User: Fold DUF2269 domain-containing protein from Azospirillum thermophilum.
Amino acid sequence: MQYGLLKFAHLAGLLMIGAGLIGVFVADLRARQSRDLPVFAEAVRLIGVFYDGLVVPGALTLLASGVWLIVIYYDGLAFLDEPWLAGMVLLFLIEFVEGNTVTRLYFTRLQRLTRIAVAEGRFTPELVAARDRPAATFTHFLDLPLLMLIVSLGAIRPADWTVFAVGGIAALAVAAALTVTLPRLYPADAQRTG
Assistant:
């Protein structure tokens, strides 16, 4: 019974974080495409709604249920002997720290600059400059590929580190490609004032 409840909580956390990250990604794309300030502002607001409403609670649910499952069923540190589980934990910790530092700070700043722009009735130079910060854009685009790698490790349960290494390289490549491509498709300096 306890295992079933923990597994359910873990799956619920995964669904919340996955849905939230997809919502953040789509809202971010909408913001990048928009040349209309009110539409841009609404897309940025939705990023915050998805992030705070689904990603954060999903991550906390995954963290709590995952730690509990590891403590009970893997005798604490014995999980380090399982490459698939150790890889999942490592990636989750990296994403948890990155998401609550670089990405959260970026979107918080973007929301603040968007409120200022709406009050002024135009895209401000600060907002346009903040839109495509490379480091924050890269970490944002890394979220979904790393989540996919985490899920793949749990589903495949490889006995060595090959899937982790190949998947990690692929996730970095996808994030890099999106970081380079999307700002060129939707350049921030093309956003009109007013």
